[in-house]
């Protein structure tokens, strides 16, 4: 049976458009946050976090969510490992989540994966001092090799197929037209420019959410090339709308 598709439900905004708020209790207590996406039950899926210099957060025993983080600026220490901009971590659900520490302050994207609630995730912890060190692959979509693209898969959940990627798009990119995925796709632009359509342009600090089964990418294009962080809540696949 064909899935029911939606149209024009993508959300795209510069994070400067939304205010900081005090995140409150739990692992992120004492942090400022900007919610990028909350789930229908109100829980946080992805959030931009700002740590003040000297931040020392609480550790959580046997975390109920898998927690991912990508450092945008500053420095964090997680369980004794120092991560600077471009650093990335994953602590799977069921594992102990060390407290976030920052001597000089930091900003990072934090992503919570609740899909594995119940039995502990079988994922391994990941600590990458630079996500850019991951060996890139050239994506192949519909049998076409996308030369000039670099896809770095930073993590893939062995239980759900959810993943997080660093994707570099070449200058002059023109997409194949409107498409959809069976999973939610979230994007944060790190460098360059990339437009999902003719009305919007994504530049560093812009967030984009393409809902599952939502048609988007009516005119994907990049003038100067771009690097984006992209994360999905299940196994990603692309379907073009003819
Ligand atoms: Fe997409």
What does this structure look like?
- There is one protein chain.
- With 242 residues, this protein is mostly beta strands.
- The protein folds into two domains: 14-132, Jelly Rolls (Sandwich); 135-240, Sandwich (Jelly Rolls).
- Helices cover 0% and strands 46% of the residues.
- The chain has no helices and 24 strands.
- It has strands at residues 6-7, 11-14, 21-22, 32-38, 44-51, 55-56, 66-78, 81-84, 88-91, 100-102, 106-113, 126-128, 140-141, 144-145, 150-156, 163-169, 179-180, 185-192, 194-197, 200-202, 206-210, 214-215, 226-232, 239-240.
- The strands form six sheets. Strands 3, 4, 5, 6, 7, 8, 9, 10, 11 and 12 form a ten-stranded antiparallel β-sheet that branches.
- A hairpin with a 2-residue loop joins strand 19 (194-197) and strand 20.
- The mean pLDDT is 94.
């Amino acid at each position: 049976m064909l899935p029911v598709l939606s149209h024009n439900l993508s959300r795209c905004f510069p994070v400067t458009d939304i205010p900081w708020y005090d995140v409150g209790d739990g692992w992120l207590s004492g942090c400022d946050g900007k919610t990028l996406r909350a789930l229908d039950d109100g829980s946080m899926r992805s959030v931009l976090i700002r740590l003040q210099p000297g931040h020392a957060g609480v550790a959580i025993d046997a975390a109920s969510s898998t927690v991912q983080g990508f450092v945008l600026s500053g420095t964090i220490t997680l369980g004794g490992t120092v991560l600077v901009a471009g650093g990335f971590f994953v602590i799977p659900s069921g594992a102990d989540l060390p407290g976030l520490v920052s001597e000089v302050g930091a900003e990072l994207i934090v992503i919570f994966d609740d899909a594995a609630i119940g039995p502990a995730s079988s994922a391994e912890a990941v600590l990458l001092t630079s996500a850019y060190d991951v060996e890139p692959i050239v994506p192949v979509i519909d049998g076409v090799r996308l030369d000039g693209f670099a896809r770095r898969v930073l993590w893939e959940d062995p239980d759900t197929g959810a993943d997080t990627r660093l994707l570099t798009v070449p200058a002059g990119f023109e997409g194949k037209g409107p498409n959809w995925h069976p999973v939610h796709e979230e994007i944060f632009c790190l460098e360059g420019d990339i437009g999902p359509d003719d009305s919007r342009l994504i530049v560093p600090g812009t967030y984009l959410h393409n809902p599952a089964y939502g048609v988007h990418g009516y005119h994907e294009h990049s003038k100067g090339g771009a690097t984006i962080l992209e994360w999905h809540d299940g196994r990603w696949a692309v379907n073009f709308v003819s």
